[in-house]
Amino acid sequence: MRLVLNAYAKINLYLEVVGKRPDGYHDLVTVMQSISLADELTLERQQAEGISLTIDGDFPTNENNLVVRAANAYFAASGTPFGVNIHLKKQIPVSAGLGGGSADAAATLQGLNTLNGGYFDQQALLRIAAGIGADVPFCLVGGTKLCRGIGEQMTPAPSTLSLTLVVAKSGEGVSTPAAFAALDRAFDDFRNFDRDTVPEALLAGLANGDISRTVSGLFNRFESVIEPARPSVTALKRELLARGALAAQMSGSGPAVFGIFADAAAAKAAAEALRKMGNPAFACQTVQEIS
């Protein structure tokens, strides 16, 4: 049996860090959104046990890759090992705040479960996903979600908007642990930081199809520490705004930036212009249903 699956990237429409936990992890309030920019995974079941991963490009194919970690976690949980060949075609920029590795892991779990006759229900898959990485549970279900904790506590955030986007990256990737460490230094380990709020304007804008209110509710706490260190992020935001974006914001811990456009032709032109400037850039849409 052979499956071909899309692994959809995500952006953070809202991202606030509300505290630091005793275990060193951080509590978040974030609105995550699936987008049509995607990697492609091909999974083929084999008779002999074992995991074989091949990738277009220079990427690790061992336990350092979340695809392999997800496959090992699935087989450990199911106790039904079988052979699988996985080929990954990368499109999502890496170390960019777009959840590419998490999306690949989630698609791997979904694909293996299909190859295994639907052995686990979704709740069981979500438990496995949570053990792989903070964004993997969201990438498994996708759509628009209000997430808390480290991102694993998800509540549906109804959206009637189909947003046209340009997603772009400039320069080297950003280490997420390093970005959190920078926030810890800037906010005194969040000792006196009380920001456990709900992004009401953003959620209302999404639910009511009000793009102006949605745009007014965008926020990312990481911008306060990443932009001073990475002027290219600010430059990308300015470039997107100059080319017609209604708003531009960094996703996750960066350095990828997304712009929201009212016009698909303008978005396509902006993405093409950014590519000519040497930046990976993609015109895409928000996605409510993933398969």
List strands and helices in order, with pairings.
Elements: E1 2-20, E2 26-46, E3 50-56, H1 66-78, E4 83-89, H2 100-115, H3 122-130, H4 136-141, E5 144-149, E6 153-156, E7 164-168, H5 176-186, H6 200-208, H7 211-216, E8 219-220, H8 223-229, H9 231-242, E9 247-250, E10 257-261, H10 264-276, E11 281-287
Parallel strand pairs: 1-8, 3-4
Antiparallel strand pairs: 1-2, 2-4, 2-5, 2-11, 5-6, 7-10, 7-11, 9-10
Structural write-up:
This protein is an alpha+beta fold. The protein has helices at residues 66-78, 100-115, 122-130, 136-141, 176-186, 200-208, 211-216, 223-229, 231-242, 264-276; strands spanning 2-20, 26-46, 50-56, 83-89, 144-149, 153-156, 164-168, 219-220, 247-250, 257-261, 281-287. Strands 1, 2, 3, 4, 5, 6, 7, 8, 9, 10 and 11 form an eleven-stranded mixed β-sheet that branches. It contains ten helices and eleven strands. 35% of the residues lie in helices and 30% in strands.
